[in-house]
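step: validate -> pass
step: tokenize input -> pass
step: predict -> running
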Amino acid sequence: TSNVTGGVSARGFIWPVKGQIVSQFGETRNGVKNSGIYILPQPGQKVVAAKKGTVEAVTDADDGMRAIVIKHEGGVRTIYGCCCNPVVGEGSYVEQGQPIANANPGGTGKSQEVNFKIYVKDKPVNPMSYLP
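step: predict -> pass
step: emit ->
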């Protein structure tokens, strides 16, 4: 595991939350190969857009997990999976660093981890090579 730092990467991305990386890209977790990274955020954080773009989808799952998909230029999409309350809607334009969701407070019994994925032309890439 490692801790997240600030700043903007050479590819123009920032971290969606600051915290501890608890699962890396490509690791098998709960029997499934991880196509992103899992970050355990520090308490009280909001999930922010890693890069400016348009909110393409906000999904709602039965288990409370939601996914927010942001489309960026160049065929790039970022996906933020978390037990969270989205504060953006489909079709919204978001700036880099703009809050897109409030992470659920602790004590809900749900995982607080944020599953962050980057897709380039519909193929998952290692977010670590895009983040600062």
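step: describe -> The two ends are 16 Å apart (CA to CA).
step: cleanup -> pass
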